[in-house]
Amino acid sequence: MGGIGSGRVCTRHRVSVEESVYLDIGELRALCGLMPGTRVVTTFSGADRPAVVFRTVLGDSCLSVQLESRPTADPVDRQHIAVTRAACHLGGSRTYLVCPGDGCEARCLRLYLRDGQFGCRRCNDLYYASQRQNPWDRALGRANRLRKELGGRPGTQQAIAPRPRGMWRSTYLRKRQAIMEAEHVAMQWLADRHRLFDHLPG
To answer: How, if at all, do strands 107-108 and 62-69 pair?
Structure first.
């Protein structure tokens, strides 16, 4: 068995979902109602990257995507992506994008841009930022998000905000309980870490 660093070296830099350019079927529906023949231009920009612009043309059962500008000058061919509908359990249907990756065909609500082509999270080997957080960060992040939803301030030293006007009492109590449970998980993890370090040889 090899030691640390003796395994195969990965030469492809992994990218997170949160920093990826994406194509979202819900956003297309909101913009144009998914009407065939509609053209939609989408721009992604950020402080740490150049703008990415792509044009989407909708058809009856597919759409085509053409990148109009990107951070590099590499040519990118137009990509055709199938669109499908699936029945919902309570009636109606939901529209999905079909991943064009080789042999994939996964139904997705969102596809991500990687190396000039759109594909699902699995095909593009993307990870969620939370997957690289320790239990402390994940638990406190969840607690702080819930605190803000209730109109309060983040941090375990802050009082949980009172029930916002218009929020159901049951909803408020559920969120309040979730905050306390998440913060308990964070504190328990921190206590376990301290106990571990206390038993390490000096």
So the answer is: unpaired
Instruction: Please tell me whether residues 35 and 83 are part of one structural domain.
Output: yes
User: Model confidence at 69, in pLDDT bands (50, 70, 90)?
Assistant: low
Q: How far is CA 73 from CA 118, 120, 134, in A?
A: 17, 24, 38
Q: Which two tokens stand for residue 98?
A: 């079909």
Rounded-to-integer distance, Cα 194 and Cα 191, Å: 5
The per-residue pLDDT for range 82-122, each reduced to its tens digit, is: 888 888 888 888 889 899 888 898 999 988 888 878 889 88
Beta-carbon contacts of residue 137 (< 8 Å; ≥ 6 apart): 130
Domain ranges, residue 47 = 17-119
Beta strands in 3-38 (DSSP E): 22-24
Same domain for 106 and 138? no
Residue pair 143/183 in contact by the 8 Å Cβ criterion: yes
Contact 110, 124 (CB under 8 A): no
- C-alpha–C-alpha distance, residues 133 and 105, integer Å: 30
Report the SS3 class of residue 190.
helix
pTM: 0.57
Q: Which are the contacts of 183, defined by CB distance < 8 A and separation ≥ 6?
A: 139, 140, 143, 156
